[in-house]
Specification:
- The structure holds two protein chains of two kinds.
- By secondary structure, chain A is mainly beta.
- Chain A is built from six helices and 40 strands.
- In chain A, the strands form seven sheets. Chain A has a 22-stranded antiparallel beta barrel. In chain A, strands 8-13-14-11-12 form a five-stranded mixed sheet, with no helix packed on it.
- Chain A is globular and about 130 Å long.
- Chain A starts with a helix and ends in a 7-residue tail after the last strand.
- By secondary structure, chain B is mainly alpha-helical.
- Chain B has ten helices and no strands.
- Classes of the chains: A mainly beta, B mainly alpha.
- At the A-B interface, α1, β36 and β37 of A face α1, α3, α5, α7 and α9 of B.
Chain lengths: ~725, ~210
């Protein structure tokens, strides 16, 4: 027995020696950029004991280890690190510098910035959110007008649509919930700018690419505007809007926290406004529009949702259009437009790995235009369906693939009750498929490689286009990225109508970008080069001589865009400055040689300022915009597009005041464009024949009015909650 | 002899007992009560994390780790740093949920996370996180009508939401009063379950009644 006790005693002593010894562990912890990690947790595995890293990332841990002799190092946003220790002399161990790896969820949050502006309510560190669009002065809550304050866009005031990096308006396409919105702007006549059909409040996410966009989208030579609508509504409420140009009402209802339906109607009439404020346009029947919208949402599962959106509207206007050949005899122009849109989309996550999304859209647009005695009817119908699937593969890859199909029927009838009678139409089928992979090479280097296949029955030419983008993180706040892409687009409908010998227009994009963002300040600079080929050209009247249409046009666009936004320096103040430099020339349409097109201005500058003034519960917005002169073609000059309009200046402001009317939350919105009354000229329209001295008479293309003032009152009604006691 | 050795080995095996866990947690909870500065919360978050990682199957330490990270985010400057803390807290809340954490309490913590996000940039984020907070708390309340923390947070949310947007003193007071009543009659013996909020609720009620 004595022996046993002695043995046990010896054993116990041995244990104390082996297990009870204190060991000193030295080391330091760094992140993937070799920067010291402060406040990491270093713990003895399977105990509560531990220490933390100092300001230089180093630590000293003195503790008794367990049998496992292991330590674990953790830090927020990084994978835990475990190490089994081998004891050194004097019971000290130096494990050197441990470099932690970012966790996969961290990596998911990184996006490649080249060529893309993302405005999302879901992701942080994005450039704009949906509220920005509604509150940017000068835009009067129009999506395209707000995007015009970002770099990479050119201001074309008489058009009202998006012109991106030297590209014409048709080169930018709009996508809503994945499918194309064929007519995102309301129809208009020459000289009256269009406005977007969609309220910015419909969208929770806007990804505006200025080039190099994903293989998921196609048929846009310059840019894809990708809009994502809100999911399920958050409450039952009604809203009415009373403005100086019309009325609107919405009722939205939420059931069982998984289904919502919103119905709205709107009516707009510019007559009362134009009667009071002088216009540059001679209206006979000012712009009038009425329409209705239905939005249905249903959560189909924990992560799945079904969205259905239906929309119709009718627009009418009539005006006297100045005739450059005879100022005393203006043209009588009227327009009636019928528009219908249906979009259904779904998203679902299967087995926690595959994300499947898909949708279909039906677009209907019919314009009746009367130009003096000539009657024009254009009908454009497009049905599209698409489905795509994506998944993560380990922490390294994300793959995405999809297919889509669309069918377009386009018809144009022209007659004048006597000898003029034309009726053309075309029907085309278009299929596309894409595959794209995101690769995380390491915590600093990302790539996205995609390939897109398209085939259109009308032009009978399959195309393969590659899209590659690469991002290298210089630090946790900055990245350098580059993008390359090939883009194809069918010629515009008005050309496809007359010729079936045409092929796709194309463009190559090369983009290089640097972006730095920290604590609500963001700076970015981007350089690009676009190479255009096979643009549509003709020299004559292609409507009567369609064989004149060909794809011999080409061009280039290059420039630098700079953007700086600061929400931090001044309390309650948010401002951004964006500047674009553009150098572009092209030989397309009826150009005689390669010249700068009329929609391209060399310098574009926007300064946007927003200030929340607590004392008066209001947000003040001020925007200053500048564009250098735009080219125009003087027929008396030998050279084409060698003249420049004067520069464009505009100072606009708005005020949103939050208040209550009879206990209901109310927003009073006031805005005015061009407060200082600059006389801006967008270009000139010339008469068709010169006078005796060889001069051509001309009419300036001006804004529809010097200023546009707007007042709106928006009241929200909510059901009073019944409190259970 | 063998028996003795076996008994000896089992006594001396270096394992953590329930006793260690409870006393470590209670020690930390006492310090949490007194915590005021970001450094206090940082240290406690690290300590709770060690307990959580060592125990592996208990959700309470993760709950309090997330609680400390969120509390710290309200006290520091720097939008990026604050958002990172909320990111980490949300990941930990999810982990706690997977370990079978109390759903009502985790909803309260997630609602606090939404509030933390909102306060980083109220101008841009209130439209998004305001309704999210209210919806989450309303759901939690429907399933747990007597959880005082749910009622307190919901009351606090409504008190600072303008009346026109569905908030206001009249809607908030009944909830805060009910929360205070439940807090004041709750058992006071030390527990590992979330029991915070009594002082905050009482002072909120005093402020609201002014």
């Amino acid at each position: 027995m004595k022996k046993a006790i002695a043995f046990i005693g010896f054993f116990a002593a041995l244990q104390t020696m082996l297990w009870g010894q204190k060991i000193t562990v030295n080391g330091s912890v760094s992140d993937e950029f070799n920067q010291p990690v402060i406040g990491a947790n270093i713990m003895v595995k399977n105990t509560y004991l531990g220490t933390t890293t100092d300001l230089d990332g180093s630590f000293v841990l003195i503790a008794e280890l367990t049998a496992e002799k292991a330590i674990v190092i953790t830090y927020l946003g990084y994978e835990p690190y475990e190490k089994v220790l081998s004891s050194g002399p004097d019971n000290t161990v130096n494990i050197g510098t441990v470099k932690l790896k970012p966790s996969s969820t961290e990596l998911e949050g990184v996006t490649i910035t080249a060529g893309a502006f993302e405005a999302s309510d879901e992701k942080r560190g994005t450039i704009l959110n949906s509220l920005d669009i509604a509150t940017t002065a000068g835009a009067t809550a129009d999506v395209a007008a707000t995007l015009n304050t970002l770099p990479g866009t050119q201001r074309v005031g008489e058009e009202g649509r998006l012109f991106v990096r030297g590209g014409a308006a048709y080169e930018t396409r709009t996508f809503i919930d994945g499918t194309v919105a064929q007519n995102p702007y309301n129809s208009s006549v020459s000289g009256v700018p269009s406005r977007g059909r969609y309220s910015p409040f419909l969208f929770s996410g806007t990804a505006f690419s200025t080039g190099g966009y994903s293989a998921e989208f196609g048929q846009a030579l310059s840019s894809a505007l990708v809009l994502n609508t809100h999911g399920l509504a958050t409450k039952t409420q009604s809203e009415i809007g009373i403005t100086t140009v019309g009325l609107d009402a919405t009722h939205q209802k939420l059931w069982d926290n998984n289904t919502s339906l919103a119905v709205s109607a709107n009516y707009m009439n510019l007559s009362p406004y134009t009667a009071i404020i002088d216009q540059n346009i001679d209206w006979v029947a000012p712009f009038q529009n009425y329409g209705s919208q239905v939005i249905y949402r249903k959560k189909t599962s924990e992560n799945g949702i079904l969205k259905i959106h239906g929309d119709f509207s009718e627009t009418k206007m009539r005006l006297k259009y100045p005739n450059a050949d005879d100022l005393k005899d203006p043209n009588d122009v009227s327009l009636r437009n019928n528009y219908g849109y249906l979009n259904a989309s779904f998203k679902e996550i299967i087995k926690d790995t595959w994300t499947i999304s898909g949708g279909m859209s039906y677009n209907f647009n019919k314009d009746y235009v009367q130009f003096d005695s000539i009657n024009h009817q254009i009908t454009d119908q497009l049905v599209q369906a698409r489905v795509s699937a994506s998944r993560f593969v380990g922490n390294v890859f994300k793959i995405k693939t999809g297919v889509e199909y669309y069918n377009q029927a386009y018809r144009e009838k022209v007659n004048n009750k006597s000898d003029l009678n034309r009726d053309f139409n075309y029907l085309l089928h278009h299929t596309a498929a894409f595959a794209e992979v995101d690769i995380v090479f390491n915590s600093r280097l990302y790539a996205r490689i995609g390939e897109r296949f398209e085939y259109s029955s009308y032009v009978n030419e399959p195309t393969f286009s590659s899209r590659v983008s690469l991002a290298y993180r210089l630090s946790s706040n900055s990245q350098v990225s580059g993008a390359f892409g090939q883009f194809y687009q069918l010629p515009e409908s008005r050309f496809l109508l007359y010729s079936s010998d045409l092929v796709n227009e194309n463009a190559l994009h090369y983009i290089l970008n640097y972006q730095y963002s920290k604590d609500q300040r963001i700076f970015r600079i981007e350089g690009y080069y676009k190479d255009y080929g096979r643009l549509i050209r003709y020299n004559g009247d292609y409507r009567y001589e369609p064989w004149l249409l060909n794809n011999s046009g080409n061009g280039y666009a290059r420039g630098i865009d700079v953007y700086f936004r600061d929400k931090k320096t001044f309390k309650d103040i948010d401002y951004w400055i964006s500047y674009s430099f553009l150098d572009t020339e092209r030989n397309f349409l009826n150009f005689r040689n390669e010249v700068t097109p009329g929609f391209a201005s060399r310098h574009n500058l926007s300064i946007v300022y927003k200030h929340w003034i607590d004392k008066i519960d209001s947000q003040l917005g001020i925007t200053y915009s500048f564009s250098s002169g735009r080219p125009y073609d003087d027929p008396a000059s030998v050279l084409q597009n060698d003249k420049r309009t004067p520069a464009f200046h505009d100072l606009s402001a708005n005020l949103s005041h939050l208040t209550q009317l009879w206990g209901h939350s109310t927003i009073l919105f006031l805005s005015c464009t061009n407060i200082l009354g600059f006389e801006n000229i967008f270009g000139y329209r010339y008469g068709s024949s010169p006078d005796e001295e060889g001069n051509f008479s001309r009419i300036p293309v001006e804004p529809t009015a010097k200023r546009f003032a707007f007042i709106g009152l928006f009241i929200t009604f909510e059901k009073k909650e019944v409190n259970n006691k | 002899m063998k028996k003795l050795i076996i008994i000896f080995l089992s006594i001396s095996s270096f394992s953590l007992s329930a006793q260690d866990y409870l006393s470590a947690m209670q020690n930390n909870l006492k310090q949490l009560d007194a915590a005021e500065t970001p450094q206090n919360y940082t240290g406690l978050a690290l300590s709770f994390e060690r307990i959580a990682v060592a125990e592996q199957t208990k959700w309470h330490p993760y709950y309090y780790q997330a609680f400390c990270l969120l509390a710290k985010s309200f006290l520091i400057e720097g939008a990026d740093d604050r958002d990172k803390l909320v990111d980490a807290a949300e990941a930990i809340i999810e982990k706690a949920g997977q370990l079978g954490g109390d759903k009502a309490e985790l909803s309260v913590l997630q609602a606090r996370a939404y509030q933390a996000r909102l306060s980083v940039d109220p101008a841009s984020r209130s439209m998004q996180y305001g309704p999210k907070t209210t919806m989450l708390l309303a759901e939690a309340r429907a399933k747990n009508p007597n959880n005082p923390r749910v009622l307190f947070l919901l009351g606090q949310n409504l008190l600072f939401t303008p009346e026109g947007y569905g908030g206001g003193k009249d809607r908030a007071l009944p909830l805060i009063e009910k929360a205070v009543a439940i807090f004041n009659t709750a058992p006071t013996e030390p527990t590992v379950d979330p029991s915070w909020g009594r002082d905050e609720a009482n002072s909120l009620l005093a402020n609201a009644k002014k």
